[in-house]
Design goal:
Length: about 120
Amino acid sequence: MRRELLQWYGLFGAALAWTGQHVVGFGVATADCTNASRHWGLDVTVWIVVFTVVGLAFAVLAEAAAISILLETRALDYDDPPPDGRRHFFAYGAALGNVLFIMAIVLNAVGTLASVGCRPA
């Protein structure tokens, strides 16, 4: 059961981390630019940095989970019978996908922090 959960976290963990970071970042940036919520005093930089660090931590853990499953099943081929063949196949996909999601988290943070802020409509 532990290996199965590790496999699924390795496959979906970084994607969920990026999704959370993106949704919160979008929400904070939008709230900072609207007149109705400006009085909340949100500091966009602090929110983006915190959620980027948290997102990166979850994504790196997902990459570690994918690599651990990949190392555990390295003697297998991806088309071997399930469940071990499936784990090996998913671990390859997760290891590559997690790197892409880690880069997406970093690029999302850089884009939000480097933006010029609110523009009048």
